Amino acid sequence: xxxxxxxxxxxxxxxxxxxxxxxxxxxxxxxxxxxxxxxxxxxxxxxxxxxxxxxxxxxxxxxxxxxxxxxxxxxxxxxxxxxxxxxxxxxxxxxxxxxxxxxxxxxxxxxxxxxxxxxxxxxxxxxxxxxxxxxxxxxxxxxxxxxxxxxxxxxxxxxxxxxxxxxxxxxxxxxxxxxxxxxx
Length: 184
Fold this sequence. Notes:
Layout: E1 8-9, E2 13-16, H1 23-31, H2 33-36, H3 45-62, E3 66-71, E4 77-84, E5 93-98, H4 107-121, E6 129-132, H5 137-145, E7 149-156, E8 160-166
Antiparallel strand pairs: 1-2, 2-3, 3-4, 4-5, 6-8, 7-8
Helix pairs in contact: 1-3
């Protein structure tokens, strides 16, 4: 199965396919329970490696997944953003995280805005939520900065209690899906 992961750009960032050089920074993030708690931390290196491989499988099965966020200036992988909808999720989710040392620069905001635009315009999705564990104030603040509003709480099969923050619709953002795309 061939996976065609697009390459997206913003002023400062590249959103691209995960590759071998991204394994170590992604594993380091997933093993840091304090940093990755709201994203889904992994208990050991093998599980973190399998998450990395699962993300590539998610792209193959769904046609979307998490991009690596790359800083154009340094070429360093600095986080993850994209659309996630594994078994048990009520809908496609817009997710975002930055790796240690890349906080406070607006990277997650810039990358997540671009991923959301891609999901609406290129994938033709008509609705997106960000699923946030209670107490993750930084993620809530970012979702709200992007115009998302609290909609409801549900029991996520992997994360436990999760709050869905609903993003503005493509129409509200003035976005038009590419011809021939069907919303999910």
